[in-house]
Amino acid sequence: GTKDQTTDTNNPNAKTIEILQSMCDYYTRTNDTWRIMAYRKAITTLRRQPTKITTAAAASLLPNIGPRLAAKIQEIATTNRLRRLDYTHDSPLDQALALFLGVYGAGAARAHRWMAQGHRSLADLLSSADLTPHQRLGVERYADLNARIPRAEVGAFFAYVQREAAGVDPGVEVLVGGSYRRGADSSGDVDVIVTRKGTVSAAELVPFLEELVEVLTRKGFLVATLAALHANRAGKDGPGSKWHGCCVLPPDEEGADTNTDANPDGGSGGGSGGPRKEPIWRRIDFLLVPEAEYGAALIYFTGNDIFNRSLRLLASKKGMRLNQRGLYKEVLRGKNRAKITEDQLLEGRDEKRIFELLGVKWREPWERWC
Ligand code: DCP
Ligand code: MG
Ligand code: MN
C-alpha cells in the first residue's frame, strides 16, 4: 500500500495535509513517482508537528520540505486552498484512470492500457477487457480490497491465525508487522510474519505454511490465493518465502469477533438479528522468516517503505548493505564493481543490534512513519 493513513482530524495541520494528499493522489494518477515521494515525506513531517505551520519560512525549517512545498503550505494555511489543485480537476477521464489505478494488482501501465482500449468503468473491464484471474478478482472485489481494515479487526484476524498456527506447530511464532506494528488505526492488509527458533532458512518453514494454508482454507478463513508459495520459490526473497491472498473471519466461529456483525465500525453493516451480509474480503500476507534473519526481516516488514529506503541509503553511505535478510559489510570490489568475495554478514537476527551497527538511535515501530 502507499497510504499511511491515520486519522488527522485532531491534527493542527489537518487541512494542509488533506490538500497535500489530494495533490499526492493527483501525482499518483499521473505516475509522477518523484513528486509522490516528496509529497508523502512532507505529509509525514506535517503529521508530526504539534502546532499549525502557517508560513513558508517555518515550513522550510522542517525536514523534507523544500522551498516550493513550503510556499504551498503557506498558501493553504492562509487561504485554505491551493490554486494548483484547481488545475488537476478530475475530468471523467481522470476519474476512470483513478478507478483503474485502484484495481488490486494493476499498475499504472495496466491502468493506462485499459484507458487506451476505451474502457471507462469496472463493468467495462468485466465485460470486455482481457483480465488475468488476479485482475478479475481485483475488479470483482474492488470495494473490499480498497477498504481499510480497522485495527481491532486486524487483531481479530491475527488471533485466529495465531490459534490455528499453534495447532499446526506450537513452536512457531507469529506476529503482525506492517502498518499494524507501526500502530496504525487501520491497515491496508494483514502482514503476518512467521518464524521458529533455530531456523536458518525460510525453506525450513515452508512445510508449516503449506499445512497452515490448507487448514485455514478448509476452515473458510482463506478465500483466495494471489501468490502461492511455489510461485515465488525461486524469487530473490529466498525460497518460497511468502504467500499472498485474501481472508475473512468465518461467521460460524464461536467467540470470534467477525467483521460482519460484532464490529460496529466494520463497515459492512450486518446488525444483530438481521441477515448476515457477505463478509469483506481482506488482504493477508504470510512472510516466512528464519530466526537467523528475524531482526532484518522485522525492520523490512515493519516499514514504512520510505523509512526502509532511508535506512538502506544510510547503510550504503557507511559501507554497509541492508536488506530483509541482514546487515552486511560491503566487501571491496574489483573492476566493474564485481565482487571479489561475498559481503560479510554483520547482523541478521537482532533488530536493535542492526540499529546500533548502523549508528542510528533505536526507533520504536510506531516512530517509523518515515
Ligand atoms: N515494503 C517496502 N517496500 C515496498 C513494499 C513494502 O519496504 N515497496 C515493506 C515496508 C512495509 C511492509 O513491507 O511497511 C509491508 O508492506 P505493505 O504494502 O503491507 O505496507 P504497510 O503494511 O506499511 O501499509 P498498509 O497498511 O497499506 O498495508
Ligand atoms: Mg500492510
Ligand atoms: Mn502487505
Write out the distinct hetero groups bound to the structure. 2'-deoxycytidine-5'-triphosphate, magnesium ion, manganese (II) ion
Class derived from helix and strand content:
alpha+beta
Calculate the terminal CA-CA distance, rounded to whole Å.
14 Å
Output mean pLDDT.
88
Shape: globular
Let me know the largest β-sheet. Answer: 5 strands, mixed
DSSP strand tally: 10
Q: Spans of 5+ residues with little confidence (pLDDT < 50)?
A: 1-5, 254-258, 260-271
Strand order of the largest sheet: 2-4-7-6-5
Strand content: 5-15%
Rg is 22 Å
Q: Please estimate the helix content.
A: 40-55%
Helix count?
A: 16
Order of helices and strands: HHHHHHHHHHEHEHEEHEEEHHEEEH
What does this structure look like?
A hairpin with a 2-residue loop joins strand 8 and strand 9. 42% of the residues lie in helices and 13% in strands. With 370 residues, it is an alpha+beta fold. The longest helix is centred in the middle third of the chain and has 18 residues. Helix 6 packs across helix 7. It is globular and about 60 Å long. Strands 2-4-7-6-5 form a five-stranded mixed beta sheet, with helices on both faces.
Q: Quick recap of the structure?
A:
By secondary structure, the chain is α+β, with helices and mostly antiparallel strands.
Entry keywords:
370 residues; 5-stranded mixed sheet; binds 2'-deoxycytidine-5'-triphosphate; binds magnesium ion; binds manganese (II) ion
